[in-house]
Amino acid sequence: MKKTILVTGGTGYIGSHTAVELISRKFSVKIIDNLSNSSVDTVNTIRRITGVRPHFTKLDLCDAKALAGWFRRNRDVIAVIHFAALKSVGESEKRPLDYYRNNILSTVNLLHELNVNHISSLVFSSSCTVYGEPDSNPVTEKSSIKPAASVYGNTKRICEEIIRDAAKEFPLRAISLRYFNPVGAHSSGLIGDSPVNPSDNLLPAITQTASGKRNILNVYGNDYPTPDGTPVRDYIHVVDLAKAHVAAIERLIGKKNNTSFEVFNLGTGRGYSVFEIINAFSDCTGVRLNFKITSRRPGDMTSIWADTAQANKELGWEAGLTLDDMVRTAWAWEQNHNKKSAAE
Ligand code: UD1
Fold first, then answer.
1. Has domain 4-185+236-268+305-320 been given CATH number 2.40.110.10?
2. CA of 300, closest atom in ligand 1
3. What is the pLDDT of residues 105-139, one digit of tens each?
4. Which residues, other chains included, contact 22 with Cβ-Cβ below 8 Å and sequence gap of 6+?
5. Percent helix / strand / coil, the chain, rounded to 5
6. Contacting residues for 88 by C-beta, under 8 A, at least 6 apart
7. Is the CB–ligand 1 distance for residue 228 below 6 Å?
8. What's the 299 CA to ligand 1 centre distance in angstroms?
9. What is the pLDDT of residues 205-224, one digit of tens each?
10. Catalytically annotated residues
11. pTM here?
């Protein structure tokens, strides 16, 4: 019998890649998503890639009654990966209550259902944003948690605390995965970062400038105290990230966790500057980018990259894909996606 994993937010960017990896590891996948920032077409695309169509339900996790009904009808779920959340930093500053209500209420509702339905394994989608501007790099899981620089970041920090506390109420075993900067797309070119709402992340901005959707790439400041003046981040390929979720699920259902709430950094352990990413993109694709230096983006940090030793050791996982893989697949996805949009 296949083991069934519920993936909330499974039609989104990281959720869809994780669904593909779970299916390829012979898990049965059930997706819940409210489609607020993704498309139902992704369910069929997952089938195109894997040959298996995941079970899909359009549902908002904030709707406690509907969620309870879903769990009553789906008794086979043995573990949950919780991606569903609003994730735009800029938007979270303009609509804080929407962000607090959505991200926190959905997590509380989900935890309640795990308790009621005796499901003990939960993987939570967190972010390196909980570390704020680190005192030193690389950051380990023991690095201090700073006051969040954004409402979005605060929702991640608060949800981690709620999950940690929930383990006092029922036998929960949870893993929080703190992502650094997820980029790239599936090698099929069929799924990638395609939010319904506009994104302000670097890789989509680069590929959209290269494809002509944007006139120019704004480089948000070149006066940071870094080797070339632009901020440094730990970019990680989304397929590597997806595989880490499978490793986390296997750890939990194999009861190999050391404590009821574990945290792992997911990055490559290497930092790249904005200019290094731009150059890697041009070197890999042969496309020169039209960019200009603008003022700093409020809330941006100078440098952050991960110490991944814990994830390497405990999850038996390591990021294997290179910066070249990241920019090449992001560009292939942008080109495919444009073709698809033009044909519609
Ligand atoms: C952002 C979020 C973070 C989230 C992550 C998801 C902020 C402050 N943080 O991280 O919480 O988890 O995305 O991937 O938004 N840049 C440009 N021009 C652009 C876009 C970005 O120069 O058009 C620069 C930024 O200044 C930054 C780097 O590229 O130095 C990376 O930016 P981005 O991809 O938005 O990621 P983060 O800001 O690190």
1. no
2. 8
3. 999 999 999 999 999 999 999 999 999 999 999 99
4. 5, 7, 29, 245, 246, 249
5. 45, 20, 40
6. 152, 197, 199, 200
7. no
8. 10
9. 999 999 999 999 999 999 99
10. 152
11. 0.97
